[in-house]
């Protein structure tokens, strides 16, 4: 797998041993086609933070107060990342390609989740989708619509993307994205450097912004992960129009959906044939992390059972579309 070292077991054991990291839960794995990605969360005593493993990738949360997280400035964020790097020492320097830092998650702070899962399943499923198709990212340029703090863009770069453009209209989120990217060692695009990025503060609800940045019409993959709930409905639907405009695009991940949610399923049933009409093969993948969650002993202890019971009756299945266009396909 490009840029990512195939030593997940060794890295996980080091995290457990060197940083007194206790396995909180092993969740249901994500399956994309014939590929399976294990999902595990840990609490590290030495690092005083939570860690999540998604297949070969390790996500380490930067300490912070969730109630102030939206307003954290880039410099404070970078100081937190550097403190973690210092604590990690050689484990980080020898495994940079596998490790990503994340912000405190509102999902993690949910009283229902009880601190067990550091990233939302809505984020985990698109990450696994990229891991399943690294060849669609390697050496390619891409666009992340509604990029937020850039976590999906950074995964794409870890998988060997040559360049990623992050598009969002939230200055605070984009400032955090820049901090994460800088600390990961990525460069803002200046001289066509490999593994570079561009940040655009733009409203992508109107495809006219593509005319301002004609270079975007050459991107080869795209990502969006915006929920179609009422407040985000326009933002969720606008990528469809953008996909249609990007003639070089041949791989697109369209996340943010609740699987088996009546309204979301209705939207999915509408957009799948629409994307297919652009010449794509479209897959719909669903995931429920709580289906077979177990603790460190491989059992469902009382605490974990309480969490799962509290979530029963709540729709915890997420859904993501993966759209693939064969480069040499001739549309009839």
Give the end-to-end Cα distance, rounded to a whole number of Å: 34 Å
The structure class reads alpha/beta
**Count of distinct structural domains:** 1
pLDDT averaged residue by residue: 85
Strand content: 25-35%
Helix content: 25-40%
- Uncertain runs are none
Subunit arrangement of the protein: single chain
User: Nearest-angstrom radius of gyration?
Assistant: 19 Å
CATH topology: Rossmann fold
Global outline: globular
CATH homologous superfamily grouping? Vaccinia Virus protein VP39
Which series of helices and strands comes N to C? Answer: HEEEEHHEHEHEHEEHEHEHEHE
Sheet with most strands: strand arrangement: 8-9-7-6-10-11-13-12
Q: Major beta sheet, specifics?
A: 8 strands, mixed
The number of helical segments is: 10
> How many E strands?
13
By CATH reckoning, the class would read Alpha Beta
**Second rung of CATH, namely the architecture:** 3-Layer(aba) Sandwich
Could you characterize the architecture of this molecule?
- This protein has a single domain (8-324), classed as Vaccinia Virus protein VP39 (Rossmann fold, 3-Layer(aba) Sandwich), CATH 3.40.50.150.
- It is built from 10 helices and 13 strands.
- It has helices spanning 8-18, 74-88, 90-93, 121-132, 151-158, 171-183, 209-212, 233-245, 262-276, 302-311, and strands at 21-32, 35-44, 49-54, 57-61, 99-102, 141-145, 163-168, 187-188, 196-201, 221-225, 251-258, 281-287, 318-324.
- It has an 8-stranded mixed sheet with strand order 8-9-7-6-10-11-13-12, sandwiched between helices. The protein has a 5-stranded mixed sheet with strand order 1-2-3-4-5.
- It is globular.
- The two termini are 34 Å apart.
- The model has no long low-confidence stretch (mean pLDDT 85).
């Amino acid at each position: 797998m490009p840029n990512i070292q195939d030593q997940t077991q060794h890295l996980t054991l080091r995290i457990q041993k060197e940083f007194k990291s206790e396995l909180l839960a092993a969740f249901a794995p994500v399956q994309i086609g014939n590929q399976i990605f294990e999902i595990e969360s840990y609490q590290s005593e030495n690092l005083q933070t939570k860690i999540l493993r998604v297949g070969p990738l390790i996500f380490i949360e930067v300490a912070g107060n969730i109630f102030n997280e939206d307003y954290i400035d880039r410099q404070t964020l970078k100081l937190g990342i550097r403190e973690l790097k210092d604590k990690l020492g050689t484990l980080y320097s020898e495994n940079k390609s596998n490790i990503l830092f994340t912000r405190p998650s509102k999902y993690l702070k949910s009283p229902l989740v009880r601190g067990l899962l550091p990233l939302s399943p809505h984020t985990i499923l698109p990450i696994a989708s990229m891991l399943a198709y690294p060849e669609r990212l390697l050496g390619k340029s891409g666009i992340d619509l509604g990029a937020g703090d850039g976590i999906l863009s950074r995964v794409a770069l870890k998988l060997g993307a040559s360049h990623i453009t992050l598009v969002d209209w939230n200055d605070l989120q984009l400032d955090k994205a820049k901090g994460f990217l800088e600390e990961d060692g990525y460069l803002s695009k200046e001289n066509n450097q490999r593994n570079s990025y561009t940040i655009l503060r733009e409203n992508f609800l109107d495809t006219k912004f593509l005319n301002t940045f004609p270079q975007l019409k050459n991107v080869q993959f795209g990502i969006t992960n915006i929920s179609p709930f009422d407040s985000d409905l326009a933002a969720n639907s606008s990528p469809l129009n953008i996909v249609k405009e990007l003639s070089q695009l041949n791989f697109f991940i369209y996340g943010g959906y609740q699987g088996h949610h009546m309204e979301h399923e209705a939207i999915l049933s509408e957009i799948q044939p629409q994307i297919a009409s652009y010449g794509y093969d479209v897959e719909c993948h669903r995931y429920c992390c709580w289906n077979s969650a177990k603790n460190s002993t491989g059992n469902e202890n009382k605490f974990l059972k309480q969490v799962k019971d509290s979530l029963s009756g709540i729709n915890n299945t997420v859904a993501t579309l993966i759209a693939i266009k064969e480069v040499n396909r001739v549309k009839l």
